[in-house]
Amino acid sequence: MPSFDIVSKTDMAEVDNAINGVSREIAQRFDFKGSKCSIERKEEEITILADDDMKLAQMHELLKVYLTRRKLDVGALDFGTEEKAAGNTIRQVVKVKQGIDKDLAKRLVKELKDSKMKVQASIQGDEVRVTGKKRDDLQEAIALIKRLEIAQPLQYINFRD
User: Could you tell me if 18 and 43 lie in one domain?
Assistant: First the structure.
C-alpha cells in the first residue's frame, strides 16, 4: 500500500549558518557599534541578547531575513518571553521547533478522518504516517493538510508506492 510520512524538521546546520550571518552583520553595522548584542545557539534554542527593545526587534528581523535566505521557514521559530539580563540588557530564548507535537498530530489525524478520504493516519512518535490504496488518495490528503492553517512548517517524506 502506498504511504508517506508527515514530519517537521529544521536543518540545524542552516540555522547555524543564518546565526553566523546575523553575528557578522551585527559586528559590522554602525547602529550596533559599542553594543552588547549577541546571538548564539545551544541544542535547539537560540539565545538573543540585546541592549534594548529596538535592537531586539532589529535582531528578530535580521534572524528572519537570514533564515529566509537559507530557505528555512520562520514558522519553525517559537519566540519566548523577553526577560531582563545583567547590565540593563534584554535576553530572549527562541526555540526551534523539531518534530510534530501530540496535539498537532491528533489534529492532523482527526482532520484526515473527518474528511472521509480513503486513507488511514497513525501517529508514530513525532511524525504521522498516512497510508491509502491509491496514490491519488495520498495526494488529496497532502492537499487537504496544506489547506489547513498550521503555523509550523511540515514536510512530506518517504513517499512509497
Answer: yes
Q: For the chain, give the number of residues.
A: 161
Pair (91, 125) in one structural domain = no
Distances (CA, A) of 25 to 18, 30, 55, 148: 11, 10, 13, 36
pLDDT digits (tens, 9 = 90+) for 27-70: 999 988 888 899 999 989 999 999 989 999 999 999 999 999 99
Q: Is the CB of residue 152 less than 8 Å from the CB of residue 77?
A: no
Same structural domain, 89 and 110: no
- Cα atoms in the 13 Å half-sphere on the side-chain side of 127: 14
Is 0.90 surpassed by the pTM of this model? no
In a 13 Å sphere around the CA of 141, the CA atoms on its Cβ side amount to: 31
Residue 29, Ramachandran bin (φ over 0: left; ψ between -120 and 50: alpha; else beta) = beta
How many structural domains does the chain have?
2
Residue 93 φ then ψ, to 5°: -105, 130
